[in-house]
Amino acid sequence: MKKNLKVLLVGRGFEQARTTLSRLAELGCRYQCASSLSEADRLVREQSFDLVLNGIYVESHNVCSLREALRGTPATLLYSYEVEDGFWWILGLDRGRPCVGEAPAVPSSDFSRALDVVLAALFSGSRGLPELLTGFS
């Protein structure tokens, strides 16, 4: 079982998302905030993270530099993607491995529940995120 997960929160919205920050602290996670993608790119090249949550809406091709910087690392990447009725969270990497085929998408309304699933899998050291694949997609 892994302790003290390190989480990078990308986007100014997380600074105001007290429920997310409280939940991470409650679980013993260490977290760091980046206000821009360029700052996040720099941080992931300098430090190791277990989970990166990118709340900055970007075109899918613009998240590529962050995804590439995390590829092959132990990091799991979830990023937001704008849709007609809001935004969804997309699993970009599962412990440094690209998601093959259609990546799981989680509606923003289920973000807290999805975050709990992801954190539980990372804490337990399980090999993947099957609960996320079947529970939300």
Describe what you observe in this structure.
This protein has 137 residues and is an alpha/beta fold. 36% of the residues lie in helices and 26% in strands. The protein has helices at 13-16, 18-26, 37-46, 64-70, 111-124, 130-135; strands at 6-10, 30-34, 51-54, 76-83, 86-94, 97-98, 105-107. Strands 1, 2, 3, 4, 5, 6 and 7 form a 7-stranded mixed sheet that branches. Strand 5 and strand 6 (97-98) form a beta hairpin. It is globular, with a radius of gyration of 13 Å. The mean pLDDT is 81.
Give a quick rundown of the structure.
It contains 6 helices and 7 strands. By secondary structure, the protein is α/β, with parallel strands linked by helices.
Multimeric state: single chain
Mean pLDDT: 81
Low-confidence segments, given as residue ranges, are none
What's the SSE pattern? EHHEHEHEEEEHH
Rounded to an integer in angstroms, the radius of gyration calculated over CA atoms is: 13 Å
What separation lies between the terminal Cα atoms?
Answer: 27 Å
Number of helical stretches of at least 4 residues: 6
Quick one: biggest sheet?
Answer: 7 strands, mixed
What is the number of beta strands? Answer: 7
Provide the structure class. alpha/beta
> Hey, roughly how much beta strand do the residues contain?
25-35%
